[in-house]
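Lab notebook, page 48
Experiment: co-folding of the full assembly
Goal: obtain a model of how the components sit together before planning crosslinking
Operator: M.T.
Materials (sequences as entered):
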Amino acid sequence: MLNLILIVFALVCAIQAVTATRLMRAALWLAGVSALTAILLFRIGAHEVAVIELSVGAGLVTVLFVFAIAIAGEDAMGERPIVPRWIALPATLIAVILFGWMILPVGAGETAAAAGDFSTMLWHERGLDTLVQVGLIFAGVVGVLGLLAPARAPFPVRRAEPLPPLRAEPGAEPVAGQEG
Amino acid sequence: MITWTPATVMVLGVIGLLAVGLYGLLTVRNLFQIIVALQILVKGAVLALVAAADYVGQLHLGQSLAVTVIVADTVVAVIGMAMAVQVKQHNRTLDVKALGSLRR
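Observation: model returned without errors.
Model output:
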């Protein structure tokens, strides 16, 4: 019952985040979705993922959203959608019906306890995934630094100083081309 | 007739989050709102991964995959936000439709 209430609140937050008319409100509603998802994950038993979701999804991403919105400002909110709503809504409903038709009804499930613990699974059995995550984080940091770096010329351009005018020394023979 | 088991409730939540994210991706025009809709979609996917892993008794495997998805989604969101800030500074708009019409 508590899971159902949490899911209903998460869906309300998600709808508010998508339909919000101000970006800051959308970011805060999204933080609410993250927090409620983290509570749901904790109640399932996925404690480690719940902590990561709460700290990254509700914390880091929200702070970055607020920072980016403060830089960029609000724009193009509440205008006519590219895909008309009378097409988007039935398309979404069809997707929902297909999901439900493929998944529901759900049986009782397995009761076997998982072997090992989370750290063994993450660091040993899924070690390649962890390595890819490290590479992904590094690529993300480099990408953000490259995107947010101030634009500048690749090489410093030095302007040539103008040469002093040529003067004929007294007694010297005139240079070809400078007679007249 | 649906039997209201905990797994069924979780599946309904997953379907709801995926539906709201999909609807948002189809309708919003602001670059930041597109990232918000994508985040909601991925939260539904993370919840589905963990719920399915719990259903088959492989919760640790599901958690490990969910961590990978969360990291990838966060990197996508951060790079998307950085690109949105750059787009706003160069083109003075965050509207996807206006950006499409700026194509040379």
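Interpretation: The helical segments of chain B are 6-27, 31-55, 59-91, 96-101.
Next step: discuss with group before ordering constructs.
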